[in-house]
Amino acid sequence: MNRHPRLVQLLEYVHAHGSVTVDQLATTLGVTLQTVRRDVQRLADEGLLARFHGGVRVPSSTTENLAHQQRENLNAEGKLRIARDVAAAVPDGCSLILNIGTTTEAIARALLNHSGLRVITNNLNVASILSTNASSEVIVVGGVVRGRDQGIVGEAAVDFIRQFKVDIALMGISGIEADGTLRDYDYREVKVSQTIVAHAREVWVAADSSKFNRPAMVEVAKLSQIDRLFTDAEPPDPFPSLLAEAQVRCTVASQP
């Protein structure tokens, strides 16, 4: 179907960022809020976008995540900026748990110049990246390997993590909903993530802007259970007030 160039640009911008506010779209496209709202409604009626209060996002299932390569490409530049900020905040010589996700894989790459880290992970991609750092130690969680993304899940993984108490859990997440819950898709993965939260002195979540208002089926944790949130753009409403109420320190990665 032939579309107005503005609609094509709008779709491309939302797909690049995952979710954006109406204000962001108006500024980016150089049009009025009324025009953006009309365009968004048209695209939502066609099933190409999903609306939420104050913004719009890529339509997604609540039961199944995107493929690993799709997630890797989605907002890759934002994930790199987040990873740099996370790595800058991680001190040498501490213990970490990194979970499954393309954002934690970006963080692993950013940690390659650190020394004295002891890293536990249920992500074989993270283990492969960090194992090249001779000054740090990597411990791989036991369990069932998911072929689609090299994540390790299951009860054996839960039992393994229960042996430890680390300084910092560095966690990716599939979605943060407007009720203040952090959510994911695979129940087995969620059980591992919940155990990670319970066995860390501090919990840091790294989530690019596409994760706000993104629905997923299973609750991992509430915002009140985390200490820091790293993201690549100012969170849309109602998240600033939710983060303040939960006393979560939010770091928005600066532009390069």
What is the CATH first-level class name of the largest domain?
Alpha Beta
Largest sheet: 7 strands, parallel
Strand content: 15-25%
Helix content: 25-40%
Q: Which stretches are low in confidence, meaning pLDDT under 50 for 5 or more residues running?
A: 62-69
CATH architecture call of the largest domain: 3-Layer(aba) Sandwich
Number of domains: 2
The Cα radius of gyration reads 18 Å
User: Please, how many helices?
Assistant: 10
Describe the structure.
The chain is of the alpha/beta class. It folds into two domains: 5-57, Arc Repressor Mutant, subunit A; 68-252, Rossmann fold, CATH 3.40.50. It is built from ten helices and 15 strands. It has a seven-stranded parallel beta sheet with strand order 6-5-4-9-12-14-15, sandwiched between helices. It has a three-stranded antiparallel beta sheet with strand order 1-3-2. It has a three-stranded antiparallel beta sheet with strand order 10-11-13. Helix 6 links the parallel strand 4 and strand 5. The longest helix is centred in the first third of the chain and has 14 residues, at 76-89. The model is unreliable at 62-69 (pLDDT under 50).
